[in-house]
Amino acid sequence: MVMTGWRVAAICGLIMLTALTLPFLVSTYYVQFATKAIILGLLAMSLNLVVGYGGLVSLCHAAFFGVAGYVLALATPKYDPASLWLTLPLAIIASGAVAAVIGALALRTRGIYFIMVTLAFGEMLFYVFHDSKFSGGSDGIFVNTKPTMKIGETALLNLENPLAFYFLVLGITVLIAALLAGLVNSPFGRALVAARDNERRARALGFPVFRLRLSAFIVSGMMAGIAGYFSAAQFGFITPQTLGWHFSATILVMVLIGGLHSVPGPFVGALILIGLEEFLKGVTEHWKLAEGIIVIGIVLVMPNGLDRLMAMLREAPAAPPEPRPIAEATRG
User: Fold this and answer.
1) Which contiguous run of DSSP H or E holds residue 237?
2) Mean residue pLDDT across the chain
3) Which of 12, 108, 116, 196 is deepest in the core (most CB within 10 A)?
4) What residues does each domain of the chain span?
């Protein structure tokens, strides 16, 4: 098979061109919808670092997403906007700290037990925020104003403008995707994949498997926190349901649709699922049922997600061998 990477590059370039021009061609509603889709795509990419490259199915990533949103809500003054330079690092640190605690305990288990432990921790955090007055209880808490980006008294971006907010989220997502691509292709990423494929062999070769997985879990949680921060900033509120396992399962579906073994695959999977939901909501009131049937069909037709489609685009059939003379063929 002959590699034809220019096809993938062309597709990525087309997607980027569409993302840059879309806000100037559609209404504000669709700009905000596209922003939401990009944020969820970032969340799906963060989860895939653990699931696709680490081989660990986590059902608590919505908790890291939600914790960052609550940090923004609690750090924002009642009537004044918060500083993005202060609250974004604070949200990332909080999500990373929670991921470190959960990972240090959950990674001592394997397989179905790891899934159940992450599910349990996610539900614990859900009830912490659901039953606490400081977080607004079951009603959640509002973020009355979006954060500000200022240097001194000079505003760099007005995040109350949907267009400016969209391009900020897009730029951060592209930056994180590039960082993820570098990470998974680094020695760290290759060691993480080796531990996923054969843990015993990785340990025999001297790889610190626990530290590798814990580091990936923390980095993944911090990236999920970035997505949660901007989601809370966009919608102006955060509720305990955001931390629930149902949301974690939805993000996992996005990863499965996009494919486990590529960085942009889960992002595309998120766009497909969110776009499908938006379309079905306008078609039928039973859109959840229709969505479930379609997702099952996608999984059955493409069990490897979009990975298989991308592989087909990267490869072309090799040229057929030249025919050998009859006499030579009979001698061979």
Assistant:
1) strand 237-238
2) 86
3) 196
4) 28-244
Q: What is the pTM of this model?
A: 0.87
- Say if residues 240 and 130 touch (Cβ distance below 8 Å): yes
Cα of first residue to Cα of last residue in the chain, in angstroms, is 25
Cα–Cα distance, 136 to 19 (Å, whole number): 36
User: CA 227, CA 66: separation in Å to the nearest integer?
Assistant: 9
**Which one, of 92, 117, 121, 95, lies nearest residue 107 by Cα?**
117
- The pair of structure tokens assigned to 237 is 């509120």
| pLDDT over threshold 50, residue 4 | no
How far, in Å, CA of 1 to CA of 75, rounded? 55
Most trustworthy range by pLDDT among 15-24, 114-123, 146-155: 114-123
Q: CA-CA distance, 129 to 242, in Å (whole number)?
A: 10
CA distance readout (Å), 45 to 76, 142, 200, 289, 300: 27, 27, 27, 26, 22
Distance, in Å, from the CA atom of 161 to the CA atom of 220, rounded to the nearest integer, reads 29
- Give SS3 for 148: strand
Token pair in block for residue 62: 């919505």
Which tokens hold the place of 307?
Answer: 């990975």
Q: How confident is the model at residue 329 (pLDDT cuts 50, 70, 90)?
A: very low
Q: pLDDT tens, 145-195?
A: 889 988 877 778 888 899 999 999 999 999 999 999 999 999 999 999 999
Based on C-alpha coordinates, what's the Rg of the chain?
22
If you search the block for the tokens 């669709």, which residue do you land on?
A: 30
